[in-house]
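Q: Hand in one record:
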Amino acid sequence: MAVGIFDSGLGGLTVLDAVTKALPDIDFVYYGDNAHTPYGVREPDDIFDLTCKGTQRLFDAGCNLVILACNTASAAALRRMQESWVPKDKRVLGVFVPLIEALTERHWGDNSPPREVAVKHVALFATPATVRSRAFQRELAFRAVGVDVEAQACGGVVDAIEEGDMILAEALVRSHVDALKRKMPHPEAAVLGCTHYPLMEDVFREALGPEVAVYSQPQLVAASLGDYLKRHPGMVGMGETSQFLTTGNPRKVSDQATRFLRRKVEFQPA
């Protein structure tokens, strides 16, 4: 039984790590589109086409359910995929849902009118494409009123992480936090809207200060996925082997992933 995890590169490994620990009896097939990363600078049609191609590969591997562990793909492609592309017997879910569930303290199935929530000032750190899409603000508005969201496009951070240059990544994170604070000096909460960013979560927290609540995705996604599979057990596909697939150089990606997860990972050509 396998569930698919899709990402534009290595960031989704933070989600994979959390879900494998939370759901040890489930096999996961991970697909990293490392040949085309980062998605955050691509146009929506390009993101849609690449995401569909990767998701189809996961369907072919026996996954009935695919998690887009990529905020850019979730923002730019998911709704279009669900409306026009995903087969009726398959499901594709994004990673915004658990974030907004946590931020608004209401379940996704709660279809009551939008209401006021405790947090009023939210900083969103995301890729340029995610920020342009305004998908986070749109989904949040369905559930909450009176929330001011200030988005900061964090150019260069994903590239630095993918290349293993954590010194540059840290410098960029601090620069982007400074830029956000010039626009919103006192955020109450900060959303790390890219699955690469948990690798820099400590830097975000330090730069933002202890008074800011930081919402990071891996554990939230793991809890949400566990709840979803309890309600929809039939969505666990027929795939029976955990595997790692990449469109990039398998040896290079394996080395990078091993460094990120601190355990041996072997990627195969997608």
About this structure: Residues 37 and 228 are 29 Å apart (CA to CA). The mean pLDDT is 93.
